[in-house]
Structure formats: C-alpha cells, structure tokens
Amino acid sequence: MQVLLSKLKRRSLLKLLWLAPFAALYKYLIPKVKKENFISVPLAALPFKGAYLIKDKHTGIIKNNEGIKVFSISCTHLGCVLNVENDKFICPCHGSVFDLEGSVLKGPALKPLKHLEYKIENENIIVYI
Amino acid sequence: MFKEFIKHLFPRVTLKKNLRFTYTLCLGGLSFTAFIMLVISGVLLAVYYIPEPLQAYNSIIFIEENVTGGKYIRNLHRFSSNAFLILMFLHVLRVILTGAFLSRKYNWIIGLFLLFLSIFTGYTGYLLPMDQLAYWATQTGAELIKILPFGDYIYNIMVPDTIGGKLCLIRFYTLHIIILPVLISTLSFIHFFRVRRDKGVLPYL
C-alpha cells in the first residue's frame, strides 16, 4: 500500500476517488453486529464423562478422567461440524475421523483439531471462540 | 435505431463453413436455451419461495405438495441448471479442442467469466432449499472461497452472520436471483455481439 501510494503523483490523487463508492459499498455490506467471542456453559451441564457439543458455535467440550479439553469442532478439511460417535469425532461431509485428543485418524483432513482457550469461573466454563 | 438493430439482427453474409452443424455442435446455443429455461422456471419458483431460514424449507415443501405443477417446475429448474453447466463445459471443451480460443481471445475471456459466474450462481442456489445437503455443501464451499485471494473479505461480504443465517440466506438469494443473472445476461449479449462480429452463427438467428 505504501509503495502504491508513493508512486502516486500529487496531481492524480483525486483519481483515487473512484475507489470511494466501493469502500462505501463494502462498509454497507458488513453490518455492525457484535460477534460474541465467548460462550459460557454451566459446569453442571457437562456430562460426567463424555462430550458436550455446541454445534451452532462449532465448539466441543470433552470431559474425562484427565480433565477438560475444548476443541473447535469444525473439520479441518472443509469446515463441517463434527459429530461424536464411540469416542471419535466423525465428519458428516467426507468422513474424516479424529480421536478425542483431536488428532487425525482418517483423512481427508490433514491437520489436527484446534484447541480453544477456556477458563472456569463461578461454576461456569467460559470458552473463547 | 431500433429498426436498424432488427435489420442487422440477421447477418448479411454468412460463411458456408460456419453453417456446418459439427462446427459448433450448437453447444453455446443450447446452454443459452438452458439459461432461458432457468430464468422462466426461476421466476415461477420465486413467486412461492420465502428467503427466511425457518420458512425456506417449508415453502419448498409447499411448492412441491400444494402447487399444481410445482414439483415439475422445481425439477425443471434443477435439471436445467445441471444441463446449463454440462453444456457450458462441453462448449468450453469444443472451443479448446478446435483451438477457437487462439483466434478470438476477447470472447474466450468473456466466456470464461460466464462459466465462473454460472458455477457461482449454481453454488448460491444450492443453499436456498435449506436442507441438510444445502447446509453442508454451502459450508464446504465457503471454506473454498476463503482460499481465494481476498477470500476472507469475500466471505465476510457473503456470510455476515453464519452459514444458513438470516443475512447469509437473503444475501445468497439476492445474488442468485438478481445480481448474477443480470451479470450473466449482460456478458452473454457481449458474447453474442462478438460472435456476430467474428461472422459466427448466433443461436436462433
């Protein structure tokens, strides 16, 4: 951008005005809605041992003897939301399989699932998405 | 001017070798026919379709079950869209195999834009029924859009909330029924104008 601007002559600056409608259009097309960047789940809602999926937020909370792990359950292949079956994450779209640690057991996905940050506050688990 | 236009609609001279059926196999004209079918059936569908996530699927069911010929029109739209894309691909294949793109580069580029716009129109139409297939196909397609240069910006423009959300659905609907068809028709007419200029034979003319 800097390079592009430095090539621009002082006289031709006004020629950039044709970009303005496009910038306005872009602004118009992105509405000002605050996207919440966290979700809060009461700890009591989690199963004693198993998976709690919040599918519309693409988030899965896994609880077992070792503790709590939080994953983004968007498949790393093309972003479908994973299901849990028999201690495995299974993708409904192209059949990728992940274990409950998030690593790939079967493709087409190549990358492991993304871990999400969380904290526990007042009997609630707060996940940053 | 209008009279002149009508007068010049039919070519004064056509080259005899351009009239052979095997020269074009009528693929371009057939895909334009499919496009006309799509417009007609699409307008008929738009009378009943409701672009709202919770009601979209029900309105499709309503068209299929309670409207005379509704199922026929909907399937016609679906089959025409498949035919449109297949015929276009065959048309591109014909142009490549006969080497026509070498001598008529301008029209080749226009044609490629038409192909991409048509695929994009098909993609935006995929979400509209709001069933499982629609949802997942759009989800995977959106991941592919993100890979494009400036993909994230395009994604944010197309999907302001979530896939299958209110804003997303109505945006896909607008793209599918207004913006892309208008672009396709405009480019088609430039395409046909160039064909005529290069002494080719136009569909229906």
UniProtKB/TrEMBL annotation, chain A:
User: What GO CC terms are in its UniProt record?
Assistant: membrane
The GO terms this record gives for MF are:
2 iron, 2 sulfur cluster binding; metal ion binding
Q: Which InterPro entries match?
A: Rieske_2Fe-2S, Rieske_2Fe-2S_sf, Rieske_Fe-S_prot, Rieske_Fe-S_prot_C
**Which CDD domains is this protein grouped with?**
Rieske
Q: Which UniProt keywords apply?
A: 2Fe-2S, Disulfide bond, Iron, Iron-sulfur, Metal-binding
List cofactor names only. Answer: [2Fe-2S] cluster
Which PROSITE patterns did the record assign? RIESKE
Supply the PANTHER family for this chain.
Answer: CYTOCHROME B-C1 COMPLEX SUBUNIT RIESKE, MITOCHONDRIAL (PTHR10134)
Q: What is this protein called?
A: Cytochrome b6-f complex iron-sulfur subunit
Q: Which organism is it from?
A: Mucispirillum schaedleri ASF457
Could you tell me the gene encoding this protein? petC
TrEMBL record, chain B:
Instruction: Please name the InterPro entries in this protein's record.
Output: Cyt_b/b6_N, Cytb/b6-like_sf, Di-haem_cyt_TM
GO terms (molecular function) for this protein are: electron transfer activity; oxidoreductase activity
**GO cellular component terms, A-Z:** membrane
Sorted alphabetically, the Gene Ontology BP terms of this entry are:
respiratory electron transport chain
> Coiled coil where?
none
Matching entries from Pfam families are given as: Cytochrome_B
Q: Kindly give the PANTHER family that the UniProt entry links to this protein.
A: CYTOCHROME B (PTHR19271:SF16)
Return the protein name: Menaquinol-cytochrome c reductase cytochrome b subunit
Q: Which organism is it from?
A: Mucispirillum schaedleri ASF457
- Organism placement in taxonomy: Bacteria, Pseudomonadati, Deferribacterota, Deferribacteres, Deferribacterales
